């Protein structure tokens, strides 16, 4: 990071903005996971539908519609976060969605938890923590 | 599988357009409404999620999950190429850990 020509105050403000962007994206991933649960509930109807039919089902299947509305809010927040944060940090943080989805599926769809999944969740969370730490400097 | 692979690459391009659209935003409505970059970004995201929806409703998750993570590697490359972001060692370690975690999750779901 080139901070030679930037005053310390501005640099501090930017660091705060970057950190806030990471937190916003983390909140986004929770919303994205809830959206995916809704989409999963709706997707069970369309195992063999064509691509076009799949598209129209977003407007006709209520759970799919709700899921994609949540994705809309997700997109707005993402744009806000991307304005001040680095893409190379924020985009991988979206992987946290996998973590919430796994936890939600265990809770809602009673999918079995196993050591492999728990290991995966732990490693993803640790990876995001490393990225978050990296966004400070 | 091709759907999911295509979806993740399209999604990574979507992120690039969202970021450049976000940078072009000003404090007036026209910069939001007539922002073609944001429109392309959101369109790409929608397309990629339709691909995902299609792929996931037919395929095996343990194969599909690692495909999704390819999008993260693409995005690292794009953010260096288009936004001159530094790819630090810490970022590479973070992304590598996330990829490993996703592979574990995919196998765990088998």
Task: Please describe what this structure looks like.
The complex is a heterodimer of chains A (137) and B (110). Chain A is an all-alpha fold and 137 residues long. Chain A has 6 helices and no strands. Chain A has one domain (8-134). In chain A, helix 1 (8-43) packs antiparallel against helix 3 (62-84), helix 1 runs parallel beside helix 5 and helix 2 packs across helix 3 (62-84). Chain B is mainly alpha-helical. Chain B has one domain (2-108). Chain B has helices spanning 2-23, 29-33, 36-58, 61-83, 89-108. In chain B, helix 4 (61-83) runs antiparallel to helix 5 (89-108). The longest helix of chain B is centred in the middle third of the chain and has 23 residues, at 36-58. Chain B is flat, with a radius of gyration of 16 Å. In chain B, 47% of the residues are buried. At the A-B interface, helix 2, helix 3, helix 4 and helix 6 of A face helix 1, helix 3, helix 4 and helix 5 of B.
